[in-house]
Design goal:
Blueprint lengths: L26 H26 L4 H24 L9 H24 L2 H8 L1 H14 L5 H18 L7 H24 L5 H18 L11 H25 L4 H4 L5 H14 L5 H25 L1
Helix pairs in contact: 1-3, 1-9, 1-11, 2-3, 2-8, 2-9, 3-7, 3-8, 4-7, 4-11, 5-6, 5-7, 6-12
């Protein structure tokens, strides 16, 4: 879930990043990169669900963050040097990283008990909440169309979590907590984008997540994955890192406001993979709710892009 006006991702609070300097206008290539990025995130969601159903959530997240950190250092430290570590507002950068750690934890528990598609749809509350909270906190204005889009998005979520939907209440609670953590995370992302680099923020989220979940391992249930699941744990970290890298690459090809609507394909990937891997098929009202979330989010993002053209 990312900010509707920046580039937005979701799920466990993936970093909203400013477009880098030197953006060229190759929209088709940029859109293709975003589609690949959200596919990587959806594959990561499926792996998270599979692994958290078998192992302690802290173990799964420790593996995911450590792999993420190792890959960031291995591939980006030679080029960025100390720029990978250097921050201007270190306290807020660390708070933002803590919000992502909380988001990852709540996402892990939500996916343990919930279908992938419904979980991803609920966490897409965050972009709408960011839009509303940006009014008092960041002094931004929201148009009538923005309010209508937010109402439509919230209505979609209510259809998904309605009584009788068959969703586990505890899983819904964790998904809603995730949306709350992601909202704070994205508000901080928008604030820090003015002073700190994307790569430094990515590095610190990986570092803080690694430290938090490694520290939690002594309280896990002690079960360790065998080789096949260890390979899946490695793949989870790779997909998370790849998704962020592809988003960053996409910003070099086209403006973020043009790419933002493509984030909602994440929901389609999640629904398809959830059906393919776990046999989960949302009921008709849940599908209608997901459609409302997708349409409302894409409409707001497209309107934002047209206003910037």
């Amino acid at each position: 879930m990312r900010d509707l006006r920046d580039e937005a991702s979701l799920v466990e609070g993936r970093a909203a990043s400013p477009a880098p300097v030197g953006v060229v206008h190759r929209p088709l290539r940029g859109m293709a990169l975003v589609l690949a990025a959200v596919l990587a995130f959806a594959l990561g969601d499926v792996l998270t669900k599979h692994l958290t159903m078998r192992y302690d959530v802290s173990l799964v997240l420790a593996g995911r963050y450590v792999v993420n950190l190792v890959l960031l250092v291995a591939f980006f430290a030679p080029h960025h040097g100390w720029g990978l570590v250097r921050t201007n507002r270190t306290g807020l950068v660390l708070v933002r990283a803590g919000c992502l750690a909380v988001g990852s934890l709540t996402m892990g528990f939500a996916l343990r008990w919930m279908p992938v598609a419904e979980t991803i749809a609920i966490i897409y509350l965050a972009p709408f909440a960011v839009m509303i909270l940006a009014i008092p906190l960041l002094k931004e204005r929201v148009s009538l169309a923005g309010w209508l889009g937010a109402v439509a998005g919230f209505t979609g979520i209510l259809l998904i979590v309605r009584p009788g939907s068959g969703l586990v209440p505890l899983g819904v609670a964790f998904a809603l907590l995730n949306a709350g953590a992601a909202t704070v995370y994205h508000l901080l992302s928008r604030l820090l984008a003015r002073t700190d680099t994307t790569m430094a923020m990515l590095f610190h989220t990986a570092l803080v997540g690694s430290l938090v979940f490694l520290a939690a391992l002594p309280w896990s249930d002690g079960s360790l994955p065998g080789f096949p699941d260890m390979a899946l744990l490695l793949a989870l970290g790779v997909f998370a890192t790849l998704g962020h890298f592809l988003f960053t690459a996409a910003y070099r090809e086209a403006p973020a406001s043009l790419l933002a609507p493509m984030q909602y394909v994440h929901l389609i990937w999640a629904a398809g993979l959830g059906w393919l891997v776990f046999g989960d098929i949302p009921d008709n009202l849940s599908l209608l709710g997901m459609l409302l979330v997708i349409v409302a989010g894409m409409a707001l993002a497209l309107r934002s892009h047209r206003s910037q053209v």
